[in-house]
Design a protein that fits this description.
Blueprint lengths: L11 H28 L8 E9 L2 E3 L4 H7 L3 E13 L10 E12 L4 E13 L2 E11 L2
Parallel strand pairs: 1-6
Antiparallel strand pairs: 1-2, 3-4, 4-5, 5-6
Length: 142
């Protein structure tokens, strides 16, 4: 086991740098993902890992049906009120990938429906040089 002096988890400068990078990636992801969700749903597939787990309002969406499900939703406008980003350090992450937790809240208006509040949580994992969604959980605040 590494000593505290060499353990990157206990190195405050390393933690700050990892957290800063996670925040940059997470911020970029939130901006691009919701823009695509509202305007270019046919492009959403590029954000998901092949084995992604998707939960929408308590219902699991099979990854093979993800695109059809998302494209068939009514047109939407998401307004992000806040989001939070956290790196998942190796001591809590047994996947072998760098991972980031992104938590988002805001409001959404689907065409023909009332404005609703929503929460969405993503686990992003680094696959080669890209961040991909490993887990996506979307929930209305009802």
């Amino acid at each position: 086991m590494a000593s505290a002096a060499t353990d990157p988890i206990n190195d405050s400068e390393n933690i700050k740098e990892i957290s800063k990078m996670a925040n940059e990636y997470g911020s970029e992801f939130v901006n691009k993902f919701y823009s695509s969700l509202d305007n270019k749903r046919h492009e959403l597939g590029k954000y998901y890992a092949d084995d992604a787990k998707i939960i929408w309002n308590g219902n699991e969406i099979d990854i093979q049906n993800r695109q059809n499900f998302q494209v068939e939703l009514p047109d939407s406008t998401h307004s992000i009120e806040c989001f939070d980003v956290h790196p998942i350090f190796s001591e809590f992450n047994q996947t072998g990938h760098y991972m980031i937790l992104v938590s988002v809240s805001g409001s959404v208006r689907y065409k023909g429906h009332e404005l609703k509040l929503f929460y969405q949580n993503f686990m992003l994992k680094a696959i080669e040089t890209k961040w991909k969604i490993a887990s996506d959980c979307y929930r209305f605040a009802e």
